[in-house]
Specification:
10 helices, homodimer, 202 residues, DNA-binding
Amino acid sequence: MVIKTNARERLIKSAIELMMAKGYHAVSVNEICSHAHVVKGSFYHYFPAKWDILREVIKARDKFYQELFYRALAADISPLAKIRRIFELACQDQQSVMEATGKVTGCTIGNLTLELSYADEPARQIFRQLLGNYAAIISQTLKQSMDMGEIPRRPVAPIAQAIFAYLQGVILLAKAENKPQLLEQLADGAISIAHGLKEDPS
Amino acid sequence: MVIKTNARERLIKSAIELMMAKGYHAVSVNEICSHAHVVKGSFYHYFPAKWDILREVIKARDKFYQELFYRALAADISPLAKIRRIFELACQDQQSVMEATGKVTGCTIGNLTLELSYADEPARQIFRQLLGNYAAIISQTLKQSMDMGEIPRRPVAPIAQAIFAYLQGVILLAKAENKPQLLEQLADGAISIAHGLKEDPS
DNA sequence: TAACTAGTTGACCGGTTGGTCTAAAGTTAC
DNA sequence: GTAACTTTAGACCAACCGGTCAACTAGTTA
């Protein structure tokens, strides 16, 4: 009964931790290895190149955020309250990271998107897809909200994009200010976007 | 009448171009130098360290964005229309960058904020301040809007933060999708935030 | 013309980067 | 026991990193 997890898993875990905090370029293969107590030869036994472990990091973080979204959406509350719940859960997430490291890391997917989208076209395509998925999840919830008459009926896709963009922006601000609470304090903005403009009196 | 601009200016211009596109870590001093047709010795004659030219890049980009904001706000239109105008000008900006390079670079300040805020505390402070300034500019406009009865009166600071966060988020999306037009298409969201929730019927 | 200064040049530094390779050590199956 | 295969190990590589430095050029002032 050996507890020792295998080297591959340890490497991935190590890369996730480091890249969440510092991004891709700022983390070296050596750093990932020594943090995982694995020597470099083993790293290149499991991963053809540094890029390949980035894929694992993206996959893991995407899974985490998807679960966060579904946790928010599973709650037995109104659709709009579910959207607010996303911000609350994101807030808790950032808060727990901050307790552990003293710093707000922000959204790993968002961070890597900005870092890699310009130079690395394949990476950009991946991020484009992932971000689109999140927006799609929000779209569904907006549709529910319209069905219930909570918000006026209109095309759902751009509103979902707007809400997701807003989420990313607030996370950016929370990182710059090192203040996770911003996510809760500014959650209202997402609801405003969902409601849309006050219809002019007719 | 020699046209040759001095090396210092060329270095800064080169650093701006490169770091706008690729960020800080991904651009090397050598790259900045060769792109500016200046040898490394000269670089370190003008700048004690790489970090010091980053300061110039930040300064220049901040100036650019401040001018963009004031250009939007100087227009002879309603305060809310001014806020929408920020998105339109940002759209034009990204569009022109895209025509030149084929890629949306996003907001240099936002990019560098995410890249450097975690590891480099002094940098984070600088970005915190700059981002706060932009929000303050929006605050003023919101106050005008309230004075005119365009939107309901309530504390202005969080709304300004929300609108600015939204701007950053939309730019992130525009970069991921390589679609500057998103900035115009989603500009409505900012107006929704400014209006706030539809007051519940009392 | 001599002295001084601002700017230029490129060789050079120690350290690190992503990545390779060969040899040994475990592990498994027959 | 041994053959076959997976995993570990770390020395090694060229390339590049940010940064230094002494020698040099050119323009200005005394």
